[in-house]
Amino acid sequence: MEKAGQSISVRKDGAFCYSIRLEHDFEKLAECVEELGVRGRKLCIVTDSHVGPLYAEAVRTRLSDVFSSVTVYTVEAGEEQKTLDTVRSLYEYLIVEHFDRKDMLAALGGGVIGDLTGFAAATYLRGIGFIQIPTTLLSQVDSSIGGKTGVDFDSYKNMVGAFHMPRLVYMNLSVLSTLPDRQLASGMAEILKHGLIKNAEYFRWLAEHRQEILKRDPDVLMTMVAESCRIKRDVVERDPTEQGERALLNFGHTIGHAAEKLKNFQLFHGECVAAGCAAAAYLSWKRGMIEKAVFEEICAVLQSFSLPVKITGLDPKEVLLATKSDKKMDGGNIRFILLRKPGEAFVDQSVTEEELLDAIKWMTED
Questions:
Q1: Taking the complete model, does pTM exceed 0.90, yes or no?
Q2: Which is the catalytic residue, given 79, 190, 260, 271?
């Protein structure tokens, strides 16, 4: 029997902010949304050309009982749509349809849709409410939680954005059954990262339950997604605007984002993060903080979920240069995330260019 749904509360400044609901279907979506006090308002569901045909009508039908009108706004699927031009078109639609400050948006899709919908909500009429309905594993355990919104700017990833908390995150885990294997693996990169930075026991549990995860066992997926959501929730609550501890969530991202950009987003985000995590583990080993056997185990576990630990076809010096355009810079220094041991990450601003280039060369070599 599948486990019952779970509810995880997120707080901000000590006060309740929103709930993360994990369910096996859309049955309780309308009930959860109605609790927000939005009956009779208008809702615009923002989705993409891949997800819309699968789930938009089911979501629209359920939420039509709550809102006076529910419309669906569809954008083409793909990272290349995560731009200010796409947000501008959405603004125009909302203006023409007379959406006001008490109306809402719903992000139905993966991280691209969640980020750009959240950014539109943060900035339209100086801020309106929105809900997240993430449909990929990556968006369920990462981008839908914590209120980070944004778009890419001239291929610089997430360079324009705002912190704007959703009013609800509703996850229907049954959508993972239709997720392509490569997208499932991409989400696993962020999940494995959660174990590496905060919970070594969880990292070992993931490795031990690999077969059930890959077979998409509903009970195991519920346990896994809930634990990753709690890890991210706990970090976000303590540091909602990334002034300190929240930076740990960027483990693997500094080099990963650079590779993602230089590969023109042809690789999935999680694939680049996985290689970035391996490079960060390599640097942690080279600094003598973890044993070589631990570094090799980290790489083996990543690879066991069909994730790369190397990305070839890149010039290491170009990757190094791209890291300097990363939004995680602080006073000209990179806030690099390293491991003292699995489950214990820390922010380090003393990583030299030589050390970083060494790690990049390891990651990009054949």
A1: yes
A2: 190
